[in-house]
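Minutes, structural biology subgroup

Action item carried over from last meeting: produce the structure token record for Sulfonate ABC transporter ATP-binding protein (Burkholderia pyrrocinia). EB confirmed the sequence was re-checked against the source entry. Recorded below for completeness.
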Amino acid sequence: MVGPHNPWPYVDVFPARVSIVNATSPRTWLPPFAARGGALPAAQTVPDTRAAIRPASDAAQAGAHSERLLAIDRVSLEYRSGARIVRATHQVSFDVYGSDRFVLLGPSGCGKSTLLKAIAGFIEPVSGSIALDGKPVRGPGPDRVVVFQEFDQLPPWKTVVENVAFPLRAAAKLPRAEARERALHYLDKVGLSAFADAYPHTLSGGMKQRVAIARALAMQPRVLLMDEPFAALDALTRRKMQEELLRLWDEFRFTLLFVTHSIEEALVVGNRILLLSPHPGRVRAELNSHAHSLDSVGTGEFRDNVARIHRLLFDTDLTNAPTTEEAAS
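Output recorded by EB:
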């Protein structure tokens, strides 16, 4: 979202299951309740009210956990590539609330993984701010745990249970026995209790990712960060891991920030989706994905929504349109 002095465009072109609550298209300007089924007044310019635009359906679903956890405000990120300085994202803003399944969706090179690393505290923005629970993010911390897509994130000399227990002892300072007990608990939740004493090289890719997820959940972070965690898996294993992730969320209702370049995966995993433009990443739209599940994949409605999101990501009219900041100036 943008600052209070800027207008924020709203579009309502999706059916009930997927409604657009904001987009950087200058063509339609509607107040935030328009995307939630309210009566549509004349199109108008409205100020940004960051807390007010949280979808009512999501707030009710999250219940007592609907407080804002993460506030990303006009974050621009850069990195060095050889002799060049490359801008990865430009003035990206959004909020993540308790128990959200928030997805960053965009094509390769749009800066979504760089943005996730900045939220984790590994990269400092060149401008803008990142706050967790109202406090600026100054570096990594146990309140944010990252699951990467690489399978080699598990030290090979440690057993499965030792891999899960190690950060509990190093970061959370738990006694050895308590750390092992909690590690075994979360390994059971991901279906790997029988492999607690196995070594990573004996596990499949999907099993290694389950260990990584168990390790992250065992830390009980404020936000679980996942950077394309299933991208390297085959299609069948990927679907199984998506099912496992949603099952775990149903049980623990953790707050999830998930990066993907797959529109289909975003619709299934997320209840809120932020679309980032091709490089450099700017906010194109924020969507509410209300009722899609793995069972709806392949249906006509699901395919229609995939096509609509694809147009939002790559429509040349949107690409050439002024940004929210430019439209306000």
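Discussion: Confidence is low (pLDDT under 50) at residues 1-17, 23-65, 319-329.
Next step: EB to file the record with the rest of the batch.
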